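tmp note - glutathione gamma-glutamylcysteinyltransferase
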Amino acid sequence: MAMAGLYRRVLPSPPAVDFASTEGKQLFLEAIQNGTMEGFFKLISYFQTQSEPAYCGLASLSMVLNALAIDPGRKWKGPWRWFDESMLDCCEPLEKVKAKGISFGKVVCLAHCAGAKVEAFRSNHSTIDDFRRQVMACTTSDNCHLISSYHRGLFKQTGSGHFSPIGGYHAGKDMALILDVARFKYPPHWVPLPLLWEAMNTIDEATGLHRGFMLISKLHRAPALLYTLSCKHESWVTISKHLMDDLPVLLSSENVKGIKDVLSTVLSNLPSNFVEFITWIAEVRRQEENGQNLSDEEKGRLAIKEEVLKQVQDTPLYKHVTSILFSENSICQSKAASDSSLANVAASICCQGAGLFAGRSGSSDRFCCLQTCVRCYRATGDNSATVVSGTVVNGNGEQGVDVLVPTSQAKTSCCPSGQDGCSPMHPASNDVLTALLLALPPHTWSRIKDTKVLQEIENLVSAENLPPLLQEEILHLRGQFLLLKKCKDNKVEEDLAAPPF
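out:
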């Protein structure tokens, strides 16, 4: 019986030049000598083949994000945080991308949401000279990469719209190197830059808009990733609708007459699964991997997380949230964890960590934590880092797990009186809720009728009043909110810029 299928395509040459051909190698060597292949080596280290025929946009973006060493703040497989096509689904369902591909605007949205700095240009809002300058800028640096959206037909290739990163540039021949993520079809190849511009200066029939290019780089300091929005979680749509659409209506009530009323309304109406939506990231490792020592990288990450946590707890909003959340007979008290002691959290996360190492997607229900202990290490300056160690067992034996926990000197009423380990502490429910309230888009509060109360809550949640480290953390979360709302409202094609905060 015959088996139908396709094995690669012959690269039409001209106009393209195969990267591995004699001519392609010569172009590569000359471009290296001229300094326009600097970005190539980072990109080639993370070069990947798109896993689905319509995943070119997702593959290009995940390749660039990994090349820039941006931490996604989300697990890929096992314990590893890594960008993969399967994780880039907050702006468009993967099944829809698999069936129809993805638009230029939504790839831009995904890049913003992933925590990258993005500058995007449609061809009708740019020029070939601008494009050439941007290609030169990215190929002479390894901290900026360019993704092109173009039509294959201009290169006499089969197919239509396509995304791929630009890996290099030969100034003398005015040729760009396309690192084609559809490696099952065509190899990397050089093309004349004017022809690439012409291929970008075409209309995407799905949107009726021009294609273009985007410059992706790393923010001067990546978000600290103490907090992250779990945009992939299935409850995202309902939770985001509640937070961005329903809350403003609830706050427009005549009964909202003070800050306590505002916060009680918000906290008492949070969906039961909101804790799955905004979380704090705990670093997990096997005990035998590093022995008793923390690496400089681990110390650095913990120091940043700890400082962000301290800054959250220093905000006036934190004091209001803590007072309401843990007040006697509070209607919001059920929202707090029934027992958020460091020991119990440590046991839970140690079990989750063991599940990760066992390849069970973080499941902890098959593990039992026999014991935990808390150790402090000197991190940076006068700060110390807390490492919670646990011995976890299941039917296959024991596993030692370390959890690296950010600490602070704050005390909170969530800790039972006199309990050991309350200080230093981990991010608890009042910490996370404070971060969530700070990250809500400003329009959330706009329908409060009492102007004095409105002014007071706006002052409490203003990002302008936050110290720089926490400000960047909150603006990143707020940006995720607004970008995802733009996707939900189908406005990403109209405005390619990052959302205003």
